[in-house]
Design goal:
The complex is a heterodimer of chains A (about 210) and B (about 210).
Chain A lengths: L2 H25 L11 H7 L17 H12 L6 H10 L5 H12 L14 H10 L10 H4 L17 H13 L8 H7 L2 H13 L2
Helix pairs in contact in A: 3-5, 6-10, 8-9, 8-10
Chain B lengths: L1 H44 L6 E2 L3 E2 L7 H12 L6 H7 L4 H12 L14 H10 L10 H4 L17 H9 L1 H4 L14 H6 L2 H12 L3
Antiparallel strand pairs in B: 1-2
Helix pairs in contact in B: 2-3, 2-4, 5-10, 7-10
Classes of the chains: A mainly alpha (about 210), B mainly alpha (about 210).
Chain lengths: ~210, ~210
């Protein structure tokens, strides 16, 4: 082999290595896989999916719950104003397989507590969360959502969710939105505005 | 003196009228209040009383023996059965409401929630119908009935939630029979639950979970 052939071989090998490295780097970009366009979600839900504005934290949410909500947006049974405005379009062409993949991905991300509630109301919120208000037929949340707001199977994790988001969900169930989400419409109808404030505040701190 | 008597008479008349009006309002309000209380129970125990799997399993109440329900609600109130959530729920109930609730749930008949592992249902049926003599375990059917419908203060088990039955049989003495009260009705299950091992409990609970 002469020097020219050796050099061109080395160059070919080097460019092959470089090409592989570039492709690998693209594939390994955090949060971006070839199949799963998570950037479509983090655009609104925040770069680490901790939530932003009206868009709730989806990082660390229960996988089964994420799947069920994506389906609820897709079939429009979840009809809250913000859902209609943003999520109906976002899920219009979502396949069940993609819903499952998104849920798997986001449920595995670490979650941070929003801690944006009223600290003065947190103690009252804790009492309502754990004991309900029997005289007013308000059930205790803990039996379904768990002592640390961790949720169970398709029942969502509430711990550390944003106060504003939780408040709007409870208010809107009380107003008749998302009626298929039994038993939450029943629960929300029993809650007073003050109780909603207290619960939402407490939960925003709950880790 | 006459004026004072007149005043008293007037006061008595006003009070009598007020209480009669309140009584009528209470009757109408009573029915509404009862319906609201039923919905409250069903929010956790299932909209047809079929039970619900939350972080904690909320047991099926549908078709349950009224005497058993009444005993459990009283046990919660008196803290012979220790459960902070149910104490809160139960201690605000009047005796009349309590009785009406037990009758209401007894009359419900939804299909079982199911959701139990199916592998050992056969073993569960064998234990339920014949017991395990060598392990000193009586046949459950002897008291709970061949179809697990219960009788008087003996509870119905048919269609009960798998995780609830497992929890109850595994941790029987932790929640029930508290407060140092002798002859608590839960005492009868202490020996049986003590003798059952985890695999047998799972099999029994699975068998019962699918029974209509």
């Amino acid at each position: 082999m002469n020097a020219h052939t050796a050099r061109s071989r080395i160059m070919k090998r080097t460019s092959a290595i470089v090409a592989v490295a570039v492709i690998a780097a693209l594939a390994a970009t955090p949060g971006q896989t070839q199949e799963l366009p998570v950037r479509n979600c983090t655009w609104c839900h925040g770069p680490s999916a901790q939530g932003s504005g009206a868009a709730p934290r989806i990082a660390g949410q229960r996988e089964q719950y994420l799947v069920s909500q994506l389906h609820a947006f897709h079939d429009r049974s979840r009809d809250n104003p913000a859902s209609k405005q943003y999520m109906w379009g976002a899920t219009a062409r979502l396949s069940p397989e993609m819903a499952r993949d998104f849920a798997l991905y986001f449920s595995s991300l670490p979650a941070e507590a929003a801690e944006d509630g009223d600290t003065g109301l947190a103690a009252l919120g804790k009492v309502i969360y754990e004991q309900g208000v029997p005289d007013a037929n308000v059930v205790s949340c803990i039996v379904c959502h768990g002592p640390r707001g961790e949720g169970f199977e398709a029942i969502p994790r509430l711990g550390g969710m944003s106060h504003g988001y939780l408040k709007s969900r409870l208010e809107q169930w009380g107003q008749g939105y998302h009626a298929s989400a039994r038993p939450m419409p029943l629960v929300a109808r029993t809650l007073s505005a003050d109780e909603i404030e207290a619960l939402a505040s407490y939960l925003s701190f709950l880790k | 003196m006459k004026v004072a008597c007149l005043r008293l008479a007037l006061l008595a008349a006003v009070l009598a009228l007020a209480s009669a009006t309140a009584g009528r309002a209470q009757e109408q309000g009573g029915r509404q209040a009862f319906e609201a209380k039923v919905v409250y129970c069903k929010t956790c125990h299932g909209l047809s009383g079929e039970g619900y799997r939350g972080y904690y399993p909320m047991p099926r109440l549908a078709g349950q023996q009224p005497k058993y329900l009444e005993n459990q609600l009283r046990a919660f109130i008196e803290r012979r059965r220790v459960n902070p959530v149910m104490f809160n729920v139960a201690h605000v109930l009047t005796p009349a409401t309590l009785a009406a609730l037990t009758a209401h749930f007894h009359n419900l008949n939804p299909p079982p929630l199911g959701g139990a592992p199916r592998d050992n249902v056969g073993l569960g049926r064998t234990i339920y119908e014949q017991g395990l003599p060598e392990a000193n375990i009586a046949a459950c059917s002897a008291c709970h009935g061949p179809e697990a419908k219960g009788h008087e203060e003996i509870p119905r088990l048919a269609g009960q939630l798998y995780p609830y039955t497992v929890k109850s049989l595994t941790y029987w003495g932790r929640e029930r029979g508290q407060g140092g009260v002798r002859d608590d009705t839960s005492a009868i299950m202490v020996v049986t639950t003590h003798n059952l091992d985890a695999a047998q409990i799972s099999a029994l609970a699975a068998y019962l979970a699918f029974l209509k």
